[in-house]
């Protein structure tokens, strides 16, 4: 009931903002047409995180208190990305990380408001720290550019948001389900790829670190390709984009910390 009230309240507020009733320019959504404010991204992210973490059968999250070394390692990566000064909502979003213990799933995702989830499957699949940093940068880019709420605005429009705000449980359920299983557009994926390069460029990692994930996918001939890749820009195009952007931006960096990354993978 509490989550329902939070969702209907923030959706109602989003409709008022979308109708031009926002009083504070700082609350006007950015990054394209978006009925939701930054604060509502935070509220939605918190709600989705609660939904995810109340479902351990589907999302078996590793306890942070029992896996201190693993969480320290991955938080150190997050901290280096945030320290670049390139993350627009660095101080507004949570940027909290949870590791999902599922070795069969090659995935990571980030909710609105910066709740980051990384599967052990992709951690073990990747070869080095820069690749993981690149993947995390991509997911953080989705949140920083507020892609989830931009996508929801496009998917649902004002009418269904109004229905939810008026207490239509079916509409509320649609929105919550959509947030958890949201697929991004090709344009949003390209934008997040570009942000990954921007985030990593000031670091000692290669800025095109995420390209390594797609290079492994291509080298495998598509074996084990995640379902979500089938509707996205092709791995070949994404690899080229990553390398081109890193070169054009004059980014340096090299693959370091390989022994540390190997030790990190052995923690799972």
What does this protein structure show overall?
- A three-stranded mixed β-sheet has the order 1-3-2, with helices on both faces.
- It has 268 residues and is mainly α.
- Helix 5 crosses helix 8, helix 8 runs parallel beside helix 10 and helix 9 packs antiparallel against helix 10.
- It has eleven helices and three strands, in the order αααβββαααααααα.
Structural class: mainly alpha
Overall geometric form = globular
Q: What does the average pLDDT come to?
A: 83
Main beta sheet: 3 strands, mixed
Question: How many strand units?
Answer: 3
The portion of residues assigned to helices is 40-55%
Terminal CA distance reads 36 Å
Unreliable segments (pLDDT under 50, ≥5 consecutive)? 1-6, 11-31
Computed over alpha carbons, the radius of gyration is 19 Å
Percent strand equals under 5%
Series of secondary-structure elements, N-terminal to C-terminal: HHHEEEHHHHHHHH
Q: Enumerate the strands of the largest sheet in spatial order, edge to edge or round the barrel.
A: 1-3-2
What is this structure, in a nutshell?
The chain is mainly α and 268 residues long. The protein has helices spanning 2-18, 38-53, 68-82, 120-125, 129-144, 147-165, 169-180, 186-200, 211-219, 235-248, 258-265, and strands at residues 96-100, 108-110, 115-119.
